[in-house]
Amino acid sequence: MTFTRDAYLSQSWLDRELNELFSENWQFVCLTSDLQKVGDYITAKIGLFPIVVLKLDDEQIAAYHNLCRHRGTTLLEGKGNVGKSIVCPYHRWTYRLDGRLKGAPQMKTCFPDLDRAKLSLKPAGIGVFKGLIFVNPDPKADFEDFIGPIADKAWPHDLEAKDVFETPALHYKLNCNWKVFVENAIDGYHLAYLHEQTLGGPVVDENLWERHGDHMIWYATDEADMRHALPAKNRKEAKAWWASKIKSADSVGYGGVYFLFPAMLITATPYSFSISSLHPTGPTTCDMKVRQFGKKGEIKDDRKYIPGYDKATNTIRSELWTKAALDTGDFQTEDIWICEKVQEGLTSPSYEPGPLSKGPGAEDPIGWFHTSLTKAMPH
Ligand code: FES
Ligand SMILES: [Fe+2]
Predict the structure, then answer these.
(1) Which of 137, 265, 301, 328 could form a disulfide with 49 if both were Cys (CB 3.0 to 4.6 A apart)?
(2) pTM of the model
């Protein structure tokens, strides 16, 4: 089953996705290590819901709906530390870190009957897996339902290990519907063709996506009876380029790419680890934030070498490319180029979906993705 062009072009389809998919799902927000001190917080938008994740004490992290119980002002912005309480900037209602309303200015005069117990910050669902914090706007949502299907097949990387280092995140502004980018990311058929000059494969029967619930895990299978995070060609190159592997990731058999439904990709190799989250910004545009980790001393801030990087806004945009995508030697640039070309093609009224190539190392995963989307948004 494939979607018609409406799914990639219309505001009404995007509105449904924001309401029924992104607002009702788990989304990666940050790492536990991003919240070091009591009172540290990070805000995020999950579908239509502004959310804040906050460190309560040495043990506990909470997620709240980021809005005041008085008139609804969003309470916190970006990230930072709230100190001992959260104070609304509008009329200074004050909340304890555990979400309870402490008080309001001139409470006795203005609110003689205020029932503070009924006006705590609304909780959101929170789940932690391998140091990654996920939030669901619904506090009753079951995190196990979400992470369970991949939990025992996950990457071995320990992001808090001493030999792991994070470089500045990448922020891509993409001119395509978010689903176009996902469909390309889980398409094993294009690897040997679009990426001939960069990844150089593998071909369809030397790689596979495995389905785990709505999630998927990608493996290179170009060596008999063995599953690898990287294809043999890249493993050889990596040996030549990189001095050593990340200690915790120095084992075979884990997946190279983890797609977490609906819009998150984790790329895990013996040398690196990255977390990409897609956020729709319109029917035909999306943002992608990529956090990158590698071996200390070997991974560098390479933003200025990325085609389309603009230092002033710290964003990466195809409008700023100075050479042809296929001449850049960067497979991410090749993917962005092709996704924006697909989006352009979908815009034509003469577009109709063609057949998908069969097989788990070809385009079966696109069909699985569409089945999961249809299940998540049934009407
Ligand atoms: S809206 Fe927050 S104190 Fe009034
Ligand atoms: Fe690709």
Answers:
(1) 137
(2) 0.96
